[in-house]
Amino acid sequence: MKTAIVGAGAMGSLFGALLGETGAEVCLIDIWEEHVSAINENGLRVEHGRKTRCIAVEATTDPDRIGPIDLVIIFVKSPHTDAAARTANRLMGPDSMVLTLQNGMGNADVISKIIDPNRVLSGTTSHGATILGPGRIRHAGTGPTIIGMWAGSELDPARRIADFFTAAGIETETADDIRSVVWNKLLVNVGINAITALTGIKNGQMLDLEATQKLSRTAVEEAMAVARAQGVNIRADAAEHVLEVARATGPNRSSMGQDVDNKRQTEIGVINGVIVDEARKAGLDAPINKTLTALIETLQAHYG
Question: Does 2 participate in catalysis according to the annotation?
Fold first, then answer.
């Protein structure tokens, strides 16, 4: 399965490395020229535990040079989803599929405005990664990946991709109700990302103070109310599950925390921000999410 990954940040590079390591034909696409050059010249260096391995994988800043692709995986930050979808559209053949494994809510809908929704898949992954420098990443954590069709009920394309990923060591399952899966992952991000980004702490440090735990629970409970208003099937213990995830990923710095550390624009709009917007539409209020969103927006508006 010839694969292109649009967005060679930490997660895009990780998936590219894991697929490339098994001999799959894969190309990373990114605008970061130094990163692309380092990968092409020296391979992609992946730290995992105390070991580092170097994996040969192709990378480019010019998507037009790689021809028709069977599978395009979008891993860009949400503000760039529209542009990534247009790039994906240029790469697709008659039977190609597009998969988003991005954080937040709404990315698949943006992609589906440009690409036939019946060829769009969405999903979540529990893998974690951090960029260490050009051509270097750390594989920070592993876990299941879940994917499904965004429109329609035909699961065969999702099953083929799940088998392809699993053969590369990316344990992947399929789900009929992928919206529920995406919502449950969103609840985790709602309860962790903005809090860690604002305070400079790692995930596990959220458990140090009851006040921090309460803040996370309240943000998640607001989001749960929105999900229920939309008829989405979410786990009943979502607020406590978020704290379990924080504990399990204790040494990690959240993706939003990494964005703030590096003075990059965050995905606040499709995480806590989307809860505020959807709460308003449902006649609900989400004051904690509104405050977290405003604080992140203020912070990133005044970078250096």
Answer: no
